[in-house]
Structure formats: C-alpha cells, structure tokens
Amino acid sequence: MDKTMSLSEAISAHLNDGDTVALEGFGHLVPVAAAHEIIRQRFSNLTLARMSCDVIVDQLLGANCLTGLIAAFVANSSAGSLYELRRRVEHSDPEPLWFDEYSHGGMVARYQAGASKLPFQPIASYRGSDLAQKNPRIKAVGDPFGGPPIYVVPALNPDLTVIHAQRADSAGNVQAWGMLGIQTEAAFAGRRLIVTVEEIVDESIIRSDPNRTIVPSHVVDAVVEVPRGAHPHAVQGYYDRDDAFSRDWSAMARDAESVKQWLQTNIHDTADHEEFLALLGADHFDKLGIRDAYSTPVNYGGRE
Amino acid sequence: MDKTMSLSEAISAHLNDGDTVALEGFGHLVPVAAAHEIIRQRFSNLTLARMSCDVIVDQLLGANCLTGLIAAFVANSSAGSLYELRRRVEHSDPEPLWFDEYSHGGMVARYQAGASKLPFQPIASYRGSDLAQKNPRIKAVGDPFGGPPIYVVPALNPDLTVIHAQRADSAGNVQAWGMLGIQTEAAFAGRRLIVTVEEIVDESIIRSDPNRTIVPSHVVDAVVEVPRGAHPHAVQGYYDRDDAFSRDWSAMARDAESVKQWLQTNIHDTADHEEFLALLGADHFDKLGIRDAYSTPVNYGGRE
Amino acid sequence: MTAGTPEHTDTKSIGEDVTSSELLTIHSARALAGRRVVFAGHGLPTLATSLAQRTVAPEIEIVYESGVTGARPPDLPRTISDSVLVPGAASVIPMTHLFNYVLQGQRIDVGFLGAAQVDRYGSLNSTLIGDDWEHPDSRLPGSGGAIEAMAGAAEIFLVMRRHTPRTFVETLDFVTSPSPHRAAQSEVGTMPAGAGVTHVITDLGIMTRFAQDEELTLTAVHPGVDPAEVVRQTGWDLQVATDLEATHAPTPEELAVLRDDLDPTRIYLR
Amino acid sequence: MTAGTPEHTDTKSIGEDVTSSELLTIHSARALAGRRVVFAGHGLPTLATSLAQRTVAPEIEIVYESGVTGARPPDLPRTISDSVLVPGAASVIPMTHLFNYVLQGQRIDVGFLGAAQVDRYGSLNSTLIGDDWEHPDSRLPGSGGAIEAMAGAAEIFLVMRRHTPRTFVETLDFVTSPSPHRAAQSEVGTMPAGAGVTHVITDLGIMTRFAQDEELTLTAVHPGVDPAEVVRQTGWDLQVATDLEATHAPTPEELAVLRDDLDPTRIYLR
After folding, report:
1. What is the ipTM, given to two decimal places?
2. Does residue C253 have an active-site annotation?
3. PANTHER family annotated for this entry (chains C, D) (predicted)?
4. Mean pLDDT, chain C, integer
5. For chain A, which residues make up each domain, given as ranges?
6. Residue C208, strand partner residues
7. Residue of D65, D106, D139 to mutate, interface with A, max A Cβ within 10 Å
8. What pTM value is reported for the model?
9. Which CATH number fits domain B7-119+155-288: 1.10.287.130, 3.40.50.720, 3.40.1080.10, 3.40.630.10?
C-alpha cells in the first residue's frame, strides 16, 4: 500500500484542532518541517508532547498553536532559553500555558506505556522530588512483592505523532540510525502516525537490512519525503546541526514581536519547506556538510 | 579492557551451584555451547530461565543440573516434545521439578523489569487465564488512573545470563542481527553476563555500525569466541538450523537411558565445543550452509 | 468439491486429490479476505496467510512472534523463528516491541492460532491434559505467546486439524488463553482488547462467533459432511445456524498456488 | 597554583594563565580516578571525563543521555545529542534502554551533573527560581534526565561554576533531584540506588559527603582561597574539614591535553 503524500496533505488529513500531537526527536531527526506546516495551516488549541524542547516549541507557541505542553526539558538545547515559553510560564504572557511536567525518564515511561496500551508504567525515580508534588498525574501503586509503594506515570497516547527519519519505503517501513530518541515508542503510542524522511527509497534497500527498521509499515498512516526536514538539527549521514540558527533564535525570541515577524516571513509567507529553506540562502547547507563514514555490511544470509 | 577468555574459564568463574541462570535465544543465537559447558562442569541445583525451551533444556535436565525451570513454552520448538522435561513434570521422574510458568509476554515483562531494576512490570494479559491461578507470583495492583486492577509479574534477575551473538569486540560490545529474542533484556537483567560469539572482531568493525550493538561493553563480564556455538539453531549469516538434530533428539529422548549415554559420549567425553562438533562429522555443516545476503551500508557521517 | 466427492471420512483425504491440510489451509485463507495485519503461528496459519496474500488479501502483512514483519522467504519457514524469514523482510523488531507494542499494543487484526482444546466461547487450552495441574497426564507446550495474541488481537482465527469431542470440549482441562466471555467473569486484570475467537476452521466445517457472550455456531460444513456428525463430534450442545451453508470446494487456482508455489516439497501439506 | 598565584577574585582568571573553567575541569577529571562508567552532561563534564580518560582513568566509558556509549568524537561535542558523537562510537542504544536499563538499571558509577542550586545534603534544583511554582521568577530548563541520574547512579559529581550564597542554599526553591537524605523523608517511591552527590567541584574548592545523612563538607580549597570566604559564600553553616587541604595546581601536562587536544577552539574553556 502506497502511503506517500505531501506534507501539506498529511498534516491536514491527520491533525485536528484540540489534538495532542507528539513531535519527537532528541537533538537529531527532529520533525521541524512538520512543525512548520502545523503553523502554516494555523492549527490551534493543540497540546504538544515533546520530551526535550527546542526552537519548534517557541515557534508553535509564538504562532499561538498551543494551549498545552507535555515535556521534561524546556530550554533550547544548549543554545539558551526559549523565551516564548518562558513568557508563557513566568507571566502567562500572552496567555497561560497548561504545562504537564515530567523528567526525561518519566516521558520515556509515559510513551512506553502508551505504546504498550498499559494504563501506566512504574518508575524508580521521583521519591522526594517536588516534581511528584507539583504534578498530580505522577501517582503511586503498592508493591505486591513487598517493597515500598512505587511511583507510576500515566500512558501517553497522542492523537497524532510525527517523527523524522533518514529513509522509508513507500509502504512506510521506516529506517533510522544515529541517536534514535524516543521515536519508536512515540510512533507506536500515537493514534495516527506521520513519518517525514530525508529520502523515500526502494523497498529493496529497506529489505536488505530489516533490523534497521525502527517502525514497521502497519503502524504508519502517511510517509512524506522532506529533505532537510530536521534543520536546524542534524541528520546522521545527511547534514550537521546548525548551531548558529538555534543560538540566533534564543537571541531574537527575547522580543515577542520579532517572533511574530519571523513566523510571518519564514512560515506563513512560504508555501512549503522548500521555500522555507530557500530563504536560508542557496549555500546555507554548504557549511553543514558531513564527512562520509559507511557501516561495514553484515551478512543476512539464510538457507539457500 | 580485554574480557576475552575460554568458555571453560568463563563458566567456572561466573556460575555457582544453586544459581538462577538465564540462557536466552529464540530459535536463533541460542547459547548451546555454554549449556554444554555447564553440563561438562557438572553444576547442580540450578534454576534455568529460558523463555522458549529446546534441546538444551532436556540436556540440562538429563544431566541433573536443574532443580527449577522458569519458562513459557516447554516443547522442542516444532520438532516434538522434550521428554526429559515431560518425565519430570508428569511423573516427577527421576525427581520433581520446580516449574515457574508464564506466557512469552510474561517472560518478556519479567526480564524487562529485571533489566530496569523495577520490582514488577504490568501486563494487559492474564485476565481469566488459569495461569494466573496456578502461579502465585502473578499478582495484581490497583490502577490509580481509574481502570480495573492490572496483573503484574515480578522482576527476573538471573545470577548469570549467557547469550550468543554473531560478533563482539574484545571489550564486549556485542552485535547481533536477525531475530534478537529477549537477549538484550536478559543481558541487562543478569547480575553477571557471559557472551559467546561466532567471531571476536576488531573494534573498528563494531564501531563502524554502533546502532548494531545490542549490549554495550560495560554490562559484559566475559566474551568468548565459540564458532558454531548455537548449533542446532541457526545464526543469521553464518549457518542454518539443523532440524534433523532437533527431531532426532525428541525421538531419542523418549528413553532416559539413551539421554544419559548421549550426554556421556557427546559432553562428558569431549573436552570442549570443538570436540563436540567433531563428533557430528567433518562435513556436517556443509548441508547447513547459507546463501550470502549483505546489507546495504548506511552513512554514519558526522561533522567534518 | 465437484461431482464425485466422496463422503467425509476420518482420513486425511477429502477429495480424490484434496487433503485435509489443503482444505483447512484454503478455508483459512478465504477467512482472511480483507484483513491486513495477521499474527501467524507456524504451519497452516503461515501457509494460509501466504495463500490469502496471493488471492483474497493482497495487502496482508504477516507478523511473526520472532519479531519479523513483511517476510518474503525464499523457502517455506519451518518454524516462526526460522532464519529463512529474515532476508528480504520489511523489519525485524525486538521481542519487547513485538509483545509490548504490537500484540499488547493492539496492532494485530487477526491472530491465527491452534490449540489442544477449545470450548464453546472460544477459550483455549494449550497447557496440559488431565485434572492434576501439578502432575498432568500430558504436559503440552504451554502458552508461548497465545495468551497475548488472544488478549491483544482484534480477532482470533483458530484452526483445528481434527474435530472430535476430545478437542471441542464442554470444560477445558486448563484455560490457557481465555475468551472475553471467560475474562469477563473475573474482576482482576485488563479485559481482552478484541472479540476473541471469531472463526474456527476444522476438517468438518466452519464455526463463527462475534460477540463476547455469543457461543460458537456451526455456520458451514464441508461438502459431504453431515451437520449431525459435527454436533456428535463436539463436546457441547453445538448450535447450528439455520442458514447453514456448504463450503465451496477449493478451486484449481487455489490448489495450484498452494501446491506448486507455496509448499512444493509438502512440508505442511501432509 | 605555584608561586605568584594571586588572591581569588570573582573573575574567570584564576592564575596567570589558568581559567576557572580549566580549573574546574581538571579537578573534576582528577575526581574520576579509577571510576569506569560515567554518565556525562555536556560541557565541563564531557571535557573532564575525556581528560580523565587520558590521565587518571584510562578505562573510563562515557555514557550520554542520547544513548551513545564509548564515543571517540573527532570534534568536541557541542551537546549530548551532537551527531559528532556517533561515528566510531561503541554503541548507540535506544533511549528506552538508556533510561530503563542503564540509568534505572544502576549501571552508572558516576553521574556528572550541574544545577542552579544545591543544598547541604546535595539535593539539586534545576527547575525554577522563585517561590511560586506556577509563576516562577525564572523558569529553568527542568530535570531532563537529572532525576534519573540521581536515582540510579552509584555517585553523583556536581560541578558548579560559581560558588555563591544564591547557588549554595539553605532551602531549594524547588527540589528537582532529591538527595537520598531528602528521599528518605518520604514514604512513597523507590529509594535512590546510590549515595547521591559525593563530590562538588566549584571555583572555590571541593566539598564531599559519603553517607545518606552526612552534609557536604569543605575538604579542599583552591590555592589562595580563604576557607572563611567559602563559608561566607555558602548559604548554610558549611562544615569545614579539620584536615582541610589545598588543591594541587593543574600540571602542565593536564593543561596541555585540555587546551591542545581536547578543546583547541575554546568551545567550553571560556
């Protein structure tokens, strides 16, 4: 079954106002182009699940797409603060934000429970942490094997999950390498799943290395080819991180009006990700090039 | 740190009478040579954890190494019954066997909890199953999020885990492909870990494909090169399964005395796995050959 | 079957040249029409799913307990963990993902199982025969992943090679994989996500049920099979559909794919 | 430091040519002597671990929260998720494995963290500054994986760039990562597996503690630092070891490795 479509089609077909949407990727393979398309289509009242935040959280907030956030780390990686987010949290400016806060381990456990269709997942941390006091959704259950009560976090089942990967076939068998974050669990936890990839490849490539598949096709609703879809984050084997972009964001976003202007120029006034990239300049990716380093092939041979 | 040693050294250094030992591998990459070495060194009073049984369970029982078994499937794969096991369970012949029984999903959950140092793992199956009545270690906890009580299974932390893989470096970074069973979880759950491999390779091979590593070196206590260490099971890219051997076992093991003779000739009277293999005949592996099928390399390139 | 079909006998031969295994496989395949994600045990379920893919369900994706999805093996797999399944497969996922995210994660449309005993609501026994759990008359393989398939799949298809009062029983010796009907009588644990057993394909005919408290009903018999004989061979008071049908005989096309393409060396088509 | 060392000032320059960052990194590296599996945050902990590997702890294996183990990056990683860590690494494990099996699985000897505030028992705040949790004066990044590192690692080393009464406080504004002392006062949840913070390396000196109910004690000051000044810069009544030592100055070898091999472009050695 061919599940390929355009990013615009995929987002409009699978996202609704008011949804909880997970955009996952841990400083690598982040579905940035998909976040921009959500802004471009002016979705509202969304709750974003994003374990470890980055510029797209500020961008979605600045575009007023979000009323809620589920996260564990709310800075711009190591590039500074996310000022749209801080204005919301510190001053409810321009509006309050419902912030459902966990640790990274708690977010891992929530996605894992969601992917597993369990009501909750036990976790050995949180004893004595104010996080467990602040968040009423961090609860405890008794241990029938004689230990103390143990904390549990509830399953997270986003209405839509979007992940980005190096490649997939048109049926949606998704392959990724390098740092994989929580993408597989977020994919299985989602009620719907869009996968954006650097390249749609022939299934013979995928099937030459089946252990590389991080999400099998039956979980996938839409496959979209979006080259450079993770910028300013890296994609292993494709392009490097654009630290200057992330640093510049933190400097610029101190001013709410600048964020609005940036969104207008770069998202609303561009038709798609290709036009967005064009604004960066034709040679922008030259300085984000990588040195090739190919894996040693393994032998999948079986019975003759 | 070089952790390579002989199989004889590894087993004698890391196993003690009375231990719980996990030998995992789901019809592929089964640590058969290690099981034989346990028999050869005449360990006793062991409890074996093995999700899905096969000939080595009958062999360890016939050699009187085991007083307990933790498992979910107790036939000889599709090759028939395990008669040593059936004699124990049906007639306590020659002695009773403590049999701690779960489903495959229950064993997966037990290893997962063990690897995660959690007291238990919730599981959505077992409601209405007699297995939950028969096994008092399958318990339930309340759901603080409003659902019905949910079954949980206790963590499994073997004293020793042994797994078999295609390759490792001398520090113990282990790589495997094809069907991976529950080996990673069993490895992390173990208090000690021995890894047998078809080949010890230079670390440059391992490091050319870091996502292929299923167990990182800091978890590993001993690395042992044992070519054909999984026979009669397959190793992807190395050799095919030996179904005739497994079928012949089920036929032969109907007679307890034949098992004893087999163990004497094939295990006790051989010094090591190489001698065991030699008894199979010089050309035995010719008919278990495989057709090569190499993976397409992926680009791990990063910043120049 | 065509003219000249003999009466059903208890041997493997159903028609002049159609074996019981072939009949079971072909009817199993037909039941998969329109289904997509199928969790298949080895043997007849694997064969049936492959046949369905070539006939009534081209989009089908087979998932094996060993973690292999979308396999296209060059040789018939001998078990669910045969390494022949791997080269050319769409994915090999870790067993934790298979059990937690695919089975428990409710991603399976049809789980295809066998069992030693089945009851009227489709609870299954694959654990033991006898009334002493600690010392059974016969120790069977056990659950394997059957409990999880029953709990997580939208539907279960059951294939039973021999329809007898010892396999279709009033009371199971051991409830390994409980029907939703049985699970509902407990107050502990998570209810099965799906409907449990909806189709049973045997050497005598086909039974179906669709709701939690509905019993298996005989809805079709193979040509030449007397429905009264099916009732006699069932250990409970089997309901027979008022519009009982005769199954359609295997077509030459089905037999050709099965015999010539899928199992030319007769590994399963005994 | 050697002769000619000036008094400590609040600027970055410690000696004529040793910066505060270099001093912190070198003392952090020394504290890792003999340790093996280290979970390192980005920045100084990464630098310190790399330095330790070249000096006092050749068998060290760095584990990053992104799942990378045994990295040998050709360029200094800019964050813990920098793709430069991957080529040539020993493994990249899934994040579920990193959090469940490595951190919670108690496989880490030393977790190397930073924080905005620390208290006398080594509880850490990285969540917010202010007394209104819902509308803090400053919203900080939050836990990330710090709670899990504190709960699972055998020991935690803490590096604090500036030792002041606003960072070394009597009462944290928010307890993000609780010390075992603090955790023991709760009755819910699993006790931390390790000892919590055992070493704190600051621009003024080194504090240590080893048991659950033991307070951080000043055990060494950098050359030229008055211990009374450290007490003044600490928000609680800091205990000072009777056998207080002066730290040994960075050696030319340590400085050479750090400056010439590890961070020649001064990404972290500001």
Report:
1. 0.96
2. no
3. ACETATE COA-TRANSFERASE YDIF, CHOLESTEROL RING-CLEAVING HYDROLASE IPDB SUBUNIT
4. 92
5. 7-119+155-288
6. C199, C217
7. D139
8. 0.96
9. 3.40.1080.10
